[in-house]
Amino acid sequence: MTPTQISQIAFYFFAGLAVLGAILTVTVRNVVHSAIFLITSLLATAGIFLTLGAQFLFAVQIILYVGGIMVLFIFVIMLVNLDVALHQLQFNRQKWVAGLLALVLGSQLGVAIWFARAKGSLDIPSGRTGTLSPQNVEQFGLALFEKYALPFEIASVLLLVALIGAVVMTKKRI
Amino acid sequence: MPSWSQFMDALRQGLPLIKPQLQLTLFGIGILLTDFFLEQRFKFLNAWVAMAGVAFSAVELWRLRGVEAPGFNGSIQVDSFFVYFGFLFLAATALVILISVRYLEIEHEHHGEYYALMLFATVGMMFMASGYDLVTLFISLETMALSFYILAGFLRNERRSNEGALKYLLLGAFSSGILAYGFSVLYGLSGSTNLGDIANAIALRPAGDILVLLALVTVSAGLFFKIAAVPFHQWAPDVYEGAPTSITAYVSVASKAASFALLMRLFLVPFWPVRANWETLLGVIAVATMTVGNFAAITQTNIKRLLAYSSIAHVGYILLGLVALNDTGLKGVAFYLFAYTFMNIGAFAVIILLRRKGLIGDELEDMNGLIHRNPGAAVLMLIFLLSLAGIPPTAGFMGKWLIFWGLIQTGHYYLAVFAALYILPAAYYYLRIVVHMWMTDVTDPVRPTISPAQWVALVAAVTIVLGAGLYPEPFLRLAAYSVILPLAR
Questions:
Q1: Residue B463: predicted pLDDT
Q2: Is the Cβ pair B120, A155 closer than 8 Å?
Q3: Cβ B211–A116 below 8 Å, yes or no?
Q4: Could you tell me the residue range of the domain that residue A90 belongs to?
Q5: Interface pTM (ipTM) of the complex?
Q6: Per-block average pLDDT, block size 10, for chain B (489 residues)?
Q7: Quick one: A81 and A150 in the same domain?
Q8: Are A10 and A37 in contact (CB under 8 A)?
Q9: Boundary (domain end) residue, out of A92, A112, A127
Q10: In terms of domains, do A95 and A142 share one?
Q11: Is A115 on the interface with B (CB under 8 A)?
Q12: Does B209 touch chain A (CB under 8 A)?
């Protein structure tokens, strides 16, 4: 097998795992199980980063999402009352219509991509694919502070807004 | 390896271009810091600080007029389009700050965070108008949207407000996901996040290329959610009804104008090569939006819901300006958004007057006999409603006229006739409010009072609405100033 084939197999494996994990996250009844499937999905996404040669993102994804955020999630789940959720209706009455629409949309996307592939218009412009480079972190930093310096700064405003929102929404007396 | 001096040069070149947003951010943070030291009865000072922030930002924006330059490695593009929309956002923010003060005091939710979030939302909107890079656009859109989710749920003790905020958050996050998917397809087929590069890459592709259409459809779906076009409009009535009335005014005007700025930037730059495709799409959506908006509004008994459906109908009209896609049509879009800002905030400002302890004041019956209780407010409301319906001599009429004229010039006769006919149901439901104000007996003897800040907002709004209707020349020149047609370049 050539290296491209191996990375393709790896991609499909991780992508399938991520989608499967995401579907199970929203369909299982038990919240703790949901959280675990979400971890699976996030780990699979980390795997996709690895196949693209973004080792730094791979590490960050695991440390931040799986290590930090998900542990917080599970803590919160432990603290709140779970019994209520188990007795509630999980899906509303429109689930069949919604499912059918989702299926139609999904197959449309599939057909679109299939035809695009047959016509060869899925080829990504050359020279832009991720390459395994030893200075991955350096490239990442340069992109963040040079090309995307401004969005990076706007993101700080975004996070400030999110922070204020969390306090305003949860605190009884501000 | 780029050097330090290169980095500093890029910063020196870019900083003047984002000064309006920097001012707003600084004042927003300032409010958060000083709010902590203010006693409850001095909280109105926060509104003054916010107004000062808007004023400083407007000065910086004024100094950017006539500038046409990219900044921060193509992340933003400052041009007349940005300056026009920037002023529109600042005007909306100032008006909403003015009408908020007393309302928040009545609701017992007078906190500095409210004004800070409004300023941060404005920062997001301004970057949406100036962004020239998918990453900038997406992050600024989220900054605006996140601020609005919180503001919509700001009446934390009220169920409707909580429900509205949650619906807004869930549907907004979902639509952002679809938009992000479209952006990822755009990146995939061009290998760049810069709008100019994407336009070049799309132009090189054969006509009817399926990936371009996929990107177009998903990006449009995401944006239609944000502007509440049919069939992605269901969130609007619930959010408008539940949110604090001042924020309803803000969301219906500013968020819509910003999303339209983003939509126009995307459709007129990267999607310009496939305009034949999206013109048809927008035409169909516009007709559906006008139909649903106008007919659903007829049966409403809650004024906020009624105005929500009417704002959906207005989106249909504005989209038609993009279908025309000539100079008149685009000028019409800019002018319409401008007029809509003032007339809609004006109408909500009158509704806010009815709010007092023990009465929410957003039902049609609460308007009964307003002409006897507060004649000034009733006359102002009449002017705003006539403008919303598109009856001369108001700004709303000029906006509709420009868009119809654009449609006729480009040979879309059926669409023009169709849109003109929809003025009839619109006039019906707007006049229903007038009937309640002028022709029914007083059921509630309390006379609404108007605070000085509300007077300023109402007078400013009515001046613009009548001024732009009676003497539209200077305003039309402003609207023409905003038009950026790729054809002309």
A1: 94
A2: no
A3: yes
A4: 3-127
A5: 0.92
A6: 75 90 95 90 92 96 90 90 95 95 89 94 95 95 96 90 92 94 91 91 84 91 92 91 94 94 93 90 94 92 93 94 90 94 94 85 86 91 94 91 93 91 92 90 84 93 93 90 66
A7: no
A8: no
A9: A127
A10: no
A11: yes
A12: yes
A15 with A89, same domain: the answer is: yes
User: Pick from A147, A148, A169: which is nearest to B150 by CB?
Assistant: A169
Q: How many domains, in total, are found in chain B?
A: 1
Q: Which of B108, B117, B488, B65 has the alpha carbon at shortest distance from B272?
A: B488
- Looking at the structure, do residues A29 and A107 belong to the same domain, yes or no? yes
Q: Which of B10, B140, B153 has the CB atom closest to A169's CB atom?
A: B153
B73, B146, B201 member nearest A161 (Cβ)? B146
**Res A128: pLDDT:** 45
> How many angstroms separate the CA atoms of B419 and B35, rounded?
48
Q: Which domain holds residue B361?
A: 4-488
Contact A157 B72 (CB under 8 A): no
Could you tell me the CA-to-CA distances from B271 to A137, B166, B197, B330, B401 in Å, in that order?
34, 33, 11, 16, 27
User: Do A14 and A98 lie in a common domain?
Assistant: yes
Cβ–Cβ below 8 Å for B2 and A146: yes
**Which residues have a Cβ under 8 Å from the Cβ of B183 and sit 6 or more positions away?**
B134, B137, B138, B219
In chain B, residues with a C-beta closer than 8 Å to the C-beta of A127 are 191
A116/A146 same-domain check:
no
**Do A61 and A97 share a domain, yes or no?**
yes
**pLDDT, tens digit, 9 for 90 and up, residues B69-84:** 888 888 999 999 999 9
Interchain CB contact of B127 with A (< 8 Å):
yes
The DSSP letter of residue B77 is E
Of B117, B136, B206, the CB nearest to A154: B136
Tokens 């957003």, residue located? B362
